[in-house]
Amino acid sequence: MSSTNKVFRSSYSNASLLQTSSPPIAAFKSGALLSTSGQFIHLRHYHTFGRATECHTHLIGASMSRIHAIVYWQDNNWYIEDKSKNGVWLNNNKIIKGQPHLLRESDKVALSSKVGDSFIMVNDLKPCDVLISMALNKPAIYLERPTTSIEKTLNLFYENEGWYLIYDDERKESKVIQDGNCIHINDSLYRLQSNQVEYQTLENKPTARSLDDLELKLNVSANEEDIQLYIKDSKSSSIIKGHRIQSQLYLLLCLARKSIADKEQGYSECHCGWINLDTLSKALGIEPDNTRIRLHRLRTKIRDTVNFSGVDACQLLQLQDGEVRLNTSKIVVIKGNLLKTELGVV
Where is the FHA domain (predicted)? Predict the structure, then answer.
């Protein structure tokens, strides 16, 4: 490949968020990568690269894996992990697959080939909330909590894990903006990239080298308004919970029940749990596009909760040919403190 433009594609429907302007390097106030073709990638707290459309940075090219690499912020440092078939190179050295490698300012990263398209780590500052211009010639706007002044009549205010647009003009109502939302500022379109943590996890993460390494348990209140997901391996466990992610966890509950029902009906493992995306969306009372978004966000939360090596959340929550399923037999559902149904080993 002769140009990084052939490898990367920006899309408003996912979180690629590329910027091909040329602001001074000193203007960047959070972790960012610069490609050989001049594209900037503002890194999220957990940032995925791959051919899968739900990846934060969508790669194109036959040599790229669905989940090729991840870059994440942990203990005040950036790390990169290879998740691919064809490899990742850090400063011209191929890194060991599935193991974290420290990523520092000025480091060079190459994907799928040592001599292929590469990135330079612009800086290794911590991730932050940022408004990214959809125009190529405008710099990003970095947000400082709790208040960031954008222009004379517009401020952004952070409260209760969300950003609010506050206008000086009393005739304009304040409104909340969420991760991925676009707003107009001075006749330019900007997209919010928020790095807030919406869930809680225990300190020691479970590790999955195969899907069989993980056991899932859903604790569901009697009225099904409070759902908690516990994930464990043989040594560690994590929990995903919080009022802001109940819609994603309810989607998972629906998939778990379908998997359990199919198992009871005697379906083979490869046919167990599949449900049509439109059918699932009707059950959830939302549009199919919104179901895809919830699925993507749930995968992201699970990735942050589990140390995946050799497998990924995309294999646990599968989406294929308009159908979706929870791909595990090790799932237990407890409703109102009563064990309702279980599969596999608990």
Answer: 47-95
